[in-house]
Design goal:
Number of helices: 11
Mean pLDDT: 86
Oligomer: single chain
Distance between the termini: 44 Å
Largest sheet: none
Length: 227
């Protein structure tokens, strides 16, 4: 009788926990949808050739980030390079590093992944990248994307720290992206069940928050054989 009661209690507990988990996740997606934000379009079509914007590094960096968020690195590259140059001239070291990391990430199209990873690793050791959390998150994400191609263990370390920082900063979209990348790494490590849960949550979170780039990234990985 006691054993039967214990089994019944265990079953009920599982149902309650599953229901609570589903409710929590549902509320999470609702909250992401309600608080979603969209980046404004650039003030002009060609920022680099407009005198009002070509010398404004903040505007250039904002548009470069918007393009990079959509993984449009070819168009983001020249904007990062120009913004880096302007920030250097102003003595704005923090934003110079930020733009530099974007430029380095663009160079992954022409440099070896190992070289890009090494350069990004050096950026992470800079004093600003150790203390300024948004900058560190950006550096970690760039390194995480790069290292996935050559060193999943290093990519896991980068994305785990990035996820922690994103949660601390309330950066929901970055947190979801980090979860998705960690899911891909779990799949590469043979943990398909955990990978499916993490990537599934990342896709739904990206959909709810309006993160088009995040959706494209995860669906691209699915199309490349992550199944």
């Amino acid at each position: 009788m006691l054993a039967r009661f214990s089994k019944l209690w265990f079953s009920v507990s599982l149902v309650v926990l599953a229901s609570a988990g589903f409710a929590a996740l549902s509320w999470k997606y609702v909250w992401l949808y309600v608080t979603r934000r969209t980046d404004p379009p650039p003030p002009v079509a060609d920022l680099l050739h407009d005198p009002r914007t070509s010398s404004n590094p903040e505007v250039l960096l904002e548009e470069a980030n918007r393009l990079a968020w959509l993984f449009n690195w070819p168009k983001a590259g020249p904007l990062y390079a120009r913004a880096e140059e302007l920030f250097r001239g102003k003595g704005n070291t923090r934003n110079e590093i930020y733009a530099c990391v974007g430029t380095i990430r663009v160079q992954s199209e022409t440099m070896s992944w190992v070289d890009v990873s090494n350069v990004l690793g050096r950026q992470l050791e800079l004093p600003f990248a150790k203390t300024e959390l948004k900058l560190r998150l950006w550096c970690l994400a760039a390194k995480g994307y790069t290292d996935l191609e050559i060193n999943p263990a290093s990519a896991k370390r980068a994305w785990t720290e990035a996820q922690t920082i994103a949660h601390r900063l309330g950066e929901a979209q970055w947190e979801a992206r980090a979860e998705g990348e960690l899911g891909i790494i779990a799949f590469l490590g043979g943990n398909s069940r955990r990978a499916a849960v993490m990537v599934g949550d990342a896709v739904l979170s990206a959909k709810a928050s309006g993160d088009v780039g995040g959706q494209v990234r995860m669906l691209e990985m699915l199309g490349n054989g992550f199944n």
